[in-house]
Design a protein that fits this description.
The chain crosses the membrane at residues 21-42, 96-118, 124-142, 154-171. It comes from Pseudoclavibacter terrae. This is VIT family protein. Keywords: Membrane, Transmembrane, Transmembrane helix. By secondary structure, the protein is mainly alpha-helical. The chain has one domain. 80% of the residues lie in helices and 0% in strands. The protein is built from eight helices and no strands. Helix 2 packs antiparallel against helix 7 and helix 7 crosses helix 8 (152-175). The longest helix is centred in the middle third of the chain and has 30 residues, at 45-74. The radius of gyration is 18 Å and the shape is globular.
Length: 177
């Protein structure tokens, strides 16, 4: 998980933490869908790593463009709200980084396979498992940000999120490719 997500609950305003978590979950689901859609990653893991990195970066860019349009709509020219909207947009830029960072570990795993350290199919499976575990851990992260102690409910919520993420990823991989 990223350092920003593991910060203590009072280090980051809850709204900013929520934005980062949103980007983190979204990025992981998109990357899992991309991994599931990689038909020949086992044969060419280096190409798979490039596809994963490109997906993370282009998804981040699309998100940033959409945010820029939204922020420009909210700002009123010539007043303090324009500056406030600009500062808010800079925060949104930072908070969106987990979209792209979700690609880093799976791409690194596929990159290791490209070097011949492990076989490509195993690397792809490990990368998929890593993303599912990252989604399942979200229940604990949300509880921590809320200042609550982890419980069985936390664990169940994380497993539920992972299952939903897998279902969405399977749908996207099968319907979107």
């Amino acid at each position: 998980m990223t350092t920003a997500i593991l910060r203590r609950k009072d280090d980051l305003p809850r709204a900013r933490a929520a934005s980062r978590l949103t980007a983190y979950v979204y990025g992981n689901i998109i990357i899992l869908a991309t991994l599931l859609g990689l038909v020949h990653a086992g044969e060419n893991p280096g190409e798979g790593a490039v596809v994963i990195l490109a997906t993370g970066c282009t998804t981040l860019l699309a998100h940033l463009i959409a945010d820029a349009v939204g922020h420009s709509t909210r700002a009123e020219v010539g007043d303090r709200r324009e500056r406030a909207a600009h500062i808010e947009f800079l925060h949104e830029l930072r908070d969106a980084v987990p979209i792209a960072s979700a690609a880093s570990i799976p791409a690194a795993i596929l990159g290791v396979a490209a070097l011949g350290v492990i076989d490509g199919e195993s690397a792809q499976l490990v990368a998929e498992i890593v993303i599912i575990v990252r989604l399942a851990a979200m229940g604990f992260t949300v509880q921590r940000i809320r200042g609550e102690r982890p419980s069985f409910r936390t664990f169940a919520a994380g497993i539920g999120l992972a299952l939903i993420g897998v279902a969405i990823s399977v749908l996207k991989a099968n319907l979107g490719h």
